[in-house]
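Holo prediction. Input below; ligand is zinc ion.
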Amino acid sequence: MDIACGRCLMTPMETLSITYCDISQSDLNYFSECPKLFQLKHLDMKGVGLKALDLTPLRVLLENVADTLQSLDMKCCKMKDSHLAVLIPALSKCSQLAKVSFYCNDFSMPILRNLLQHTANWSKMNVEQYPAPLEYYDDFGYVSTERFTQLCAEQVDRLRAIRRPKSISFATHMCPRCGECCVYGRRFRPCLCQRRRQ
Ligand SMILES: [Zn+2]
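Structure of the complex:
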């Protein structure tokens, strides 16, 4: 990957899409150094492995695009709590965000709550997608329908105290048995084996 400015023209980019690949720390460092990116409207990083990286440059980028960024896709980035914690202060300032996805990352309930509590500025949010927190799973990697729907409803209620979510959903990792996810949204969609059991 090479998004280095180098000799490139300074035309601002509106969309940056780097998906399903690995990037290095020095690649990520460009995010905070490249003024060309500072008017981004869409940032798509789905499937980029971020587990081993320091996300401070991404936080700096998010701070720089807080007034322009409309969509952020960070599905399947292998992020953990420590990564999200770095981004929350910047995410909370992104007032134009209308679409965000964090599906398939490994977040705990406290950090997800922390994120949601800092989203009062997301008044334009249309579609928001979050991973089911790790506490929702049992020791075997399964999520019971009752527990999942109850915990998700609690998260949404808590969020309603600070703003009105339009379309919010939570999804589990792929079920180890059937390979489908359970999705809690406007409707609850259990994975195949849970549907069969009903
Ligand atoms: Zn299943």
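Residues 145-160 form the longest helix (16 residues). That is the main takeaway for now.
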